[in-house]
Request: fold
Amino acid sequence: MISDRDQQEQVRRFVLAFLGACGAQTDGRRIRLPRVLARQLQVDEQLELSFVPTASGEAECITYGHPLLDRMIALSIRRGATASLLCVRALDPEFLHLVFQDDPFSTAETDNRQFAWLKRTLRRVSFSKSQPRVVDRSLSYHVQLLFGFRVALISDETRERLMFILMDPLTESADSPVDITEAISFVPVTDGSTGPETSFAGDAEPLETLMSRANEEFPTHAYATLRLYRKACQILEDRLQKELREFKAEVDRRLKEDLERIETYYAGLAQEALDPLRRMFRQMAASSVRVQLARSFESETRHTKQLHLLRQRAQALEADYKEEAEQLRTEMVRRRNELTAKYQTRAEVRLISCAAVRVPRLTFTLRFGDPAFRPVTLVYDVLRARLVDHICEACEQPLSAARFCECGDLVCSDCFQSCADCGRDLCQSCASSSCHVCGHLLCSDCGKTCSWAAMRSSSSVAVCTSCHHEICSLCLRLVCGIDEW
Reply:
């Protein structure tokens, strides 16, 4: 059983850690709370706290069951958690020795599985007209941020799920998750902390509100974190679109079924309200027949009076029916509006955690025999066994067979061409134009102007010399002949 002193110590540690994490200033017993925190705890900004009963009674004694302690616990539960993971398990000493001593671009076989995969990955990257050599290599930890969101799809029923998005600052895009059991060589401590961190998790809010407030969730000085958080919110919104559409389709189907049931129900009530009037009409019809078949004046008079009374009752029943029918219509509209509001679909999102994941990456600096080629840096992710941010500088697609353009850009084979006229190496970035007939790139010194385009507008359209000789004369004769018609 926990003694009173141990309980007081537990309360003291929790309260001081909570206040420190929330940015409160402590001076002995005197506490100065941030304005937002004081409003959330429903207390003044300046407090004097104690964890043992005092004789003077000036300080507020905080112990189990105290309302202020309960509010602190409730607020800490609602707030998100932060963590920092250092992934070191993938760094085998033999692998690191080979990385820094051997040539990763060599074709020699190796028994180390990690190094063999590294060499296989680097060999997929080919450079035209020159063989690279490694002039520098280094190992560093890149910080990735893992944002955890609690997503609730709300309508007549609520579906909750946790979604995690791992953001890479190098590419500013979502990365594949890391297997923690394979990445770390220790069990993370769950009750310790390296320092106070402010939590920015709040109550769940609609997805569009979360997107609009993405700039307010983090302080302005944490610009890199803020930028990644905004990107994560955009990715989260994109990933939720399909699930939202499917959820809304299910909700609309249930709404349609309930609306049909309500219409059937009120249609039945309207028929029941009409039954007395129908019976009255049948009685009036029978009384009218008796009037026509009367054999004496007395019987005719008697049946006529009865018919007159039935008509008066029918008028009263008709008025009652119209009133009741209007009431039923009003009630049905109200129930339909209630159902529509009940089945309204929305998504609420809450940021619940943010973890800094430090992943090991190898950086290789390559130089080439041709002095015109600039150095190239390759970043290899050890955990995921792939290159990072190795993309074509023209189309931004993953790069395998790389070529150096004369402008210095490293581009893929699709973006690299030779000038259709002079044969100069070009890419889409430095080409001045392209032939609008065959599509080949043209440098600034080559190409002809399309005569027909120049006749029709002031803008110039380029064609290569080959197409100018083979196509333009035929095109002009055809077009001029059409104009003569």
Observations:
- Residues 4-78 form one domain.
- Confidence is low (pLDDT under 50) at residues 186-202.
